[in-house]
Amino acid sequence: MDGFWLACGLIFLAELGDKTQLVALTLATRFRAPVVLWGVLAATLLVHLLSVALGGLSARLLPPGWVELLSGLAFIGFGLWTLRGDRLDENDAAARRLASPFLMVFVTFFLAELGDKTMLGTVTLAAGHSALGVWLGSSLGMVASDGLAIWLGQHLGKRLPERAVSRGAAAIFFLVGVVYSVQGVMALRAG
Prior knowledge:
Largest sheet: none
Low-confidence stretches: 91-96
Number of helices: 8
Order of helices and strands: HHHHHHHH
Mean pLDDT: 79
Radius of gyration: 17 Å
Number of strands: 0
Strand content: under 5%
Distance between the termini: 27 Å
Helix content: over 70%
Number of domains: 1
Structural class: mainly alpha
């Protein structure tokens, strides 16, 4: 169950300020919030299922020390990525011509998530934790973060200190990255 809570918390933080969260905000201005949330949920479940499968495969191919070290380095990279920030690119809305708002949200999220830091974070977590726990936890964390963005976007506008949120999330990624990296180096030395 620790993989569930770790994935839920880290992916929630990773999604703060991410381009897919900005997509959720944008789509929520055009469509009803429940439609956006259902589209986000469906796309997230599919992308994170693929991510967990990739993470499980990498765990079988690499020794545990290498998995921890590479995971740690990946989380440090996610911290740097978070500090850099994401911007919504109009070209990301490849599904504009779809008639159904649900399908538009689903396709947009699915495409935006491929190769995104939340997908890569899920792959990384799945390499060392329960696949089911990581899948459910990362999906819940992402949908909760996007749901919060939709709600806040509708009620508070742009009053949130985005820079402070990004820096806090980056600090947590750096901390987790250092811990995993040290554990990986220790496991490689012991092995």
